[in-house]
Amino acid sequence: MAENETAKIPKEYADDRVNDTKTRDVVVKMMKERGVELSDIAAITYGLQGKYIPGLSEKTCLEHVERVVMKREVQNAILTGLELDKLAESGAMSEPLRGMLLEDYGLYGVDEVLALAIVNVYGSIGFTNFGYVDKTKPGIIKKLDEIGKNTDQCHTFLDDIVGAIAAAAASSIAHRYAG
Ligand code: MG
Which end of the chain is more exposed for a tag (fewer CB within 10 A), N or C? Predict the structure, then answer.
């Protein structure tokens, strides 16, 4: 890839069966309402790949994050996870699930499994990166984790979704710059 070339989504992919711009707007708004901007996710992606790819910018990372949230499977995981977080907060969820989500119970595990649906889209590099951000909790992930633990807000699914999108974008970049 030439130095000044950007990684914009090719037009022909912008509105097909796999990529959905309308749902993209919905999930981006949903994440914003829950405290996450795409630029927060791009900052994590930059943290994962910046040291390996000379000249990589946060802007390029953001373009790859944008590409990830265009994927229908990714959008479906975001819609599902955030809905469950919100339902747990609202009280419109039965026990014992509600309690497990509100306290982010360590042995619950379905939040990580749902996030794998996002990581899957870009293959095996994504798994390694997802495991890494899950352990190290960089940037907005740490913030979400703390808010989730110390307030009435539930971020049990959101923190994994953010980590998974960042990891998927890192994989997308790795594939783009490989070889
Ligand atoms: Mg979680």
Answer: C
Q: Give the SS3 label for residue 71.
A: strand
Say if domain 18-177 classifies as CATH 3.30.40.230.
no
If you measure from the C-alpha of residue 132 to the centroid of ligand 1, how many angstroms do you get, rounded to a whole number? 14
Strand-pairing partners, residue 39, are none
Q: What share of the chain is helix, strand, coil (3-state, %, to 5)?
A: 70, 0, 30
User: What is the whole-number distance in angstroms between the Cα of residue 122 and the centre of ligand 1?
Assistant: 21
Tell how far the Cα of 117 is from the centroid of ligand 1, in angstroms.
Answer: 14
Count helices and strands (H / E) in the chain. 9, 0
- Per residue in 124-161, pLDDT (tens digit) is 888 999 999 999 999 999 999 999 989 999 999 999 99
Q: What is the distance in A from the centroid of ligand 1 to the CA of 142?
A: 11
The phi and psi torsions of 105 (rounded to 5 degrees) equal: -55, 125
Dist. CA 60 → ligand 1 center (Å): 27
